[in-house]
Write a structure and sequence with these properties.
Blueprint: H1 3-7, E1 15-16, E2 19-25, H2 31-40, E3 44-49, E4 52-57, H3 59-68, E5 74-83, H4 87-93, E6 108-116, H5 123-137, E7 144-145, E8 152-159, E9 162-168, H6 190-199, E10 208-210, H7 217-226, H8 247-259, E11 268-272, H9 275-288, E12 294-298, E13 314-317, H10 329-341, E14 349-354, H11 357-363, E15 369-375, E16 378-386
Parallel strand pairs: 6-7, 6-8, 10-11, 10-13, 11-12, 13-14
Antiparallel strand pairs: 1-2, 2-4, 2-5, 3-4, 5-9, 8-9, 14-16, 15-16
Helix pairs in contact: 3-8, 4-5, 6-7, 7-9, 10-11
The structure holds S-adenosylmethionine.
Residues 183-188, 211-212, 214-215, 217, 272-274, 277, 300-301, 318, 320, 324 line the site of S-adenosylmethionine (SAM).
Length: 388
């Protein structure tokens, strides 16, 4: 987990009358999309904050979100909130949560802290005090300090001496769906690709064109959405190791998600000018189990045409820019703008990632809407263009 992902811990109360108090970590810029998605997954008190979304929900909802949410990076559950002015105080109060409900015997635990404007500012010592508190509460022999990816993550945020302790329910980041074994340069996070499709309100009945598809992320995410497949069916969620989770409950949520799959034929065309990259996209789609519902073509974006007989649809693209392109990126953006201006694309809408105002200007089209997201460590804009 990146430290900035725990920077934005919500300040809300750690207990909630109607369920667990949760915080969904998202890629900065995707907060509103994630909130909309959470609302469809039966949670309450949804509140957008920078870098994430606060909400309350039942254990079933927590399972459902981990399994099915497409735009969320991970979900933390807030277990305790208190004032801490000294390390002994922190050690004592860190014993408050019912750790035995979340940490099974022998489980490795890793604690990550961020400290702001507080008396306790040494994050390493804060982490150790909380870890010692947990070990004290459980049987000392029952936990070990783990740095490996599969250790149970506990996050601690100290701000103005107020300490919030949370437990991660997701394990590995949820954008790591597991299908992308091969990638070219600068692949887009799966959560960002899915969120862009949601933002464009792409419907599975509509044609989708993905020129410059790279490792195939947009096309694969669209195929998963179109076929009603849960985003993370094969994920090893941290919550699956919690003693508090009833396996029957998990199975019920899992069965319900599996039951939502449908064999819908889709009109998704992914293309790239690079043969080797296209091969990677095909392999990734096969890994995701959707290779048969996506058409892959080797093609320059400038030759893109809508499928015959279509009356409109959606194009999503993440063109190369910055270090990834030799020469002037604005030339490519200008050509993409020209493409969309063709009569053949009447009724189509496009989502395109734009790194700077020069590239946006080169498109020569006014954006209907725009959103700012953090992609590859940089703020970029996503534009919604349409050809009327
Ligand atoms: C930034 S990558 C796209 C990454 C992709 N979204 C992913 O998740 O892997 C840009 C892609 O555009 C392709 N490309 C560059 N110029 C192109 C062109 N003129 N026509 C078609 N594809 C092109 C590159 O081969 C590369 O795969």
């Amino acid at each position: 987990m990146e430290i900035n992902e725990i920077e934005h811990h919500a300040q809300a109360e750690h207990t909630a009358a109607d369920g667990l108090a949760c915080f969904a970590v998202v890629v900065p810029g995707l907060e509103k999309i994630a909130a909309a998605e959470l609302n469809t997954l039966a949670v309450h008190a949804v509140q957008v904050v920078e870098g994430g979304v606060n909400f309350t929900g039942s254990m079933d909802a927590l399972c459902r979100i981990n399994l099915r949410a497409r735009s969320i990076t991970r979900v933390l559950v807030r277990l305790a909130g208190f004032k801490a002015l000294s390390f002994p105080e922190l050690f004592n109060k860190a014993q408050k949560p019912a750790w035995e409900r979340y940490i099974s015997a022998g489980r490795a635990v890793t604690v990550k802290a961020s400290c702001h404007s507080s008396k306790l500012m040494h994050s390493g010592r804060v982490e150790q005090a909380v870890l010692d508190g947990i070990a004290e509460k459980l049987n000392k022999a029952d936990i070990s300090l783990g740095d490996s990816g599969d250790a149970q993550l506990i996050t601690v945020r100290l701000e103005h001496d107020q300490c919030v302790i949370s437990i991660d329910s997701s394990g590995e980041r949820l954008d790591r769906r597991g299908y992308r074994l091969l990638t070219g340069l600068a692949p887009i996070r799966e959560t960002v690709a899915a969120a862009m499709l949601q933002w464009m309100d792409w419907k599975p009945e509509e044609p989708l064109l993905v020129p410059m598809c790279g490792s195939g992320t947009f096309a694969i995410e669209a195929a998963l959405i179109g076929q009603g497949r849960a985003a993370n069916l094969a994920h090893d969620f941290a919550l699956l190791h919690w003693p508090a989770l009833h396996q029957k409950r998990w199975k019920r949520v899992q069965d319900k998600a599996a039951g939502m799959q449908r064999d819908l034929s889709l009109n998704i065309l992914a293309s790239d000018s690079d043969e080797a990259v296209l091969g990677q996209a095909v392999s990734n789609a096969a890994q995701a189990g959707v290779a048969d519902v996506i058409r892959f073509d080797r093609q320059d974006v400038r030759a893109l045409q809508p499928p015959k007989g279509s009356q409109g649809g959606v194009i999503v693209c993440n063109p190369p820019y910055g270090d990834r392109i030799r020469g002037d990126a604005t030339v490519l953006y200008r050509d993409i703008g020209k493409l969309l201006k063709q009569d053949a694309f009447k009724g189509w809408r496009m989502a395109i990632i734009v790194p700077d105002p020069e590239c946006e200007k080169a498109l020569g089209l006014a954006a209907k809407r725009r959103m700012k997201i953090k992609h590859g460590g940089k703020w970029v804009r996503v534009l919604h263009l349409r050809r009327v």
